[in-house]
Design a protein that fits this description.
Elements lengths: L2 H10 L9 H12 L16 H13 L3 H14 L9 E3 L2 E4 L2 E3 H18 L2 H19 L11 E3 L4 E2 L4 H20 L5 H16 L15 H9 L5 H10 L1 H4 E2 L3 E2 L7 E3 H13 L3 H9 L14 E3 L4 E2 L6 H15 L37
Antiparallel strand pairs: 1-2, 3-4, 4-5, 6-7, 8-9, 9-10
Helix pairs in contact: 2-3, 2-14, 3-4, 3-5, 3-14, 5-6, 5-7, 6-7, 7-8, 7-9, 9-10, 9-12, 12-13, 12-14
Length: 373
């Protein structure tokens, strides 16, 4: 662990944001669940999905477990399909859900790759995985409508499932920021990605009718409430106002954030993400209050229980998901500045277009795997 992280940990412990051994124990739990091929399932014996796999890998990067994080990204490179996508779930090296491929799952690789680069400053890593990112975002943006929203998935035959999700599109909005930044860092310019991001942001802010068109509204889910803030679609006063409007629906004092507004169930990952959204909106005191209360759900092995049903005073489900631990580490970094990636989900840091792309980095096949060959 670096000296700078040690200093950040000392600052975070007074008053305590997390226990002294929190980062090490959390990383050890994710490592204990990671498979030999690099895959990070939800927990032992369960499936992995591309989005949650990346969330756990980002936790490893925060803890300085760079080799393990990179194995996680190699696993995704090996599994990437010819069209740039991934199936919804994998188990024991095989496809576990071939019914659909979800756009926000596919786009999230850009967030993970940029996050790891921000921490390591490893340009070779960025070059190595750039083709995977470019291919993934190409798949996603092919499903953007003329209104700016992005269809949530394709079916098993590759046919678009024509509707859009606020949470999913918000996540893609952050992934496009990260993809643009990766391109810029490699002295490339993707003006098409910038335009697509602008159109998506406009849809999230101005076109609510483009979401939940063919199914019941997802507004009861807390992620639809705070994800547009977490990912930068809403900033400043607009972000703060959005969080204030539905605070009492979703936040249970002394416990955390509900997953849905009509169930007595708080979840650790949503509470972590709300913590970061609050920081993005300038509400640090609220963010710290929510986050401090989450450590009660860490088990002896370093894992965190997914959720708690306060009506029954019971942990539920009885699962310690790797992505929950990843979210805990991401929120800790946002609060305490443990790594150079600490502001990824609390600020929009869109890099300017490179002034001269004549010296564009040559993208040789640097140890590319899977469909990238």
């Amino acid at each position: 662990m670096s000296t700078s992280m040690d200093a950040a940990l000392e600052r975070a412990e007074t008053p305590a944001l997390f226990p002294a051994d929190f980062v090490r124990r959390s990383a050890d739990y994710i490592l204990s669940q990671q498979l030999a091929d690099g895959c990070i399932p939800w927990f032992d014996g369960h499936h992995a999905d591309p989005w949650d796999h990346v969330e756990a890998a980002m936790g490893l990067s925060i803890a300085g477990e760079y080799a393990a994080a990179e194995r996680a990204y190699v696993w995704l490179a090996d599994k990437q399909l010819d069209d740039g996508s991934w199936w919804a779930a994998y188990k024991r090296g095989e496809v576990d859900n071939s019914e659909r491929r979800e756009t926000n799952f596919v786009a999230y690789i850009a967030t993970g790759i940029w996050h790891h680069f921000l921490i390591t400053e490893d340009r070779g890593f960025l070059l190595r995985f750039w083709p995977m990112v470019e291919h993934a975002l190409g798949f996603v943006l092919a499903l953007q409508s003329e209104h700016g929203d992005i269809q949530w998935a394709v079916d098993g035959q590759g046919e678009p499932l024509e509707d859009a999700l606020i949470t999913g599109c918000s996540s893609i909005y952050k992934s496009l920021e990260c993809g643009i930044n990766i391109a810029s860092a490699l002295n490339s310019e993707r003006a098409d990605w910038r335009r697509a991001r602008d159109r998506l942001g406009d849809a999230l802010r101005e076109k609510p009718h483009r979401f939940d068109r063919t199914w019941e509204s997802k507004a009861r889910f807390s992620m639809d409430w705070f994800y547009p803030v977490l990912t930068g679609a809403f900033e400043g006063a607009g972000a703060k106002l959005r969080l204030q409007k539905r605070w009492d629906e979703f936040v249970v004092a002394g416990l955390g954030c509900r997953c849905v507004n009509d169930e007595p169930w708080v979840t650790v990952a949503e509470s972590c993400e709300l913590t970061m959204a609050l920081l993005a909106a300038g509400e640090r005191e609220k963010a710290e209050t929510i986050y401090r209360g989450l450590h009660r759900w860490q088990d002896e092995d370093g894992g965190y229980w997914t959720g708690y049903v306060y009506r029954d005073n019971a942990v539920w489900p009885e699962e310690k998901t790797t992505w929950t631990v990843g979210a805990m580490l991401l929120a800790a970094d946002a609060l305490a500045g443990l790594t150079p990636a600490s502001s990824l989900f609390t600020q929009v840091n869109l890099r300017d277009a490179p002034q001269n792309t004549e010296g564009l980095d040559c993208l040789h096949p640097l140890e590319l795997t899977g469909s990238q060959r």
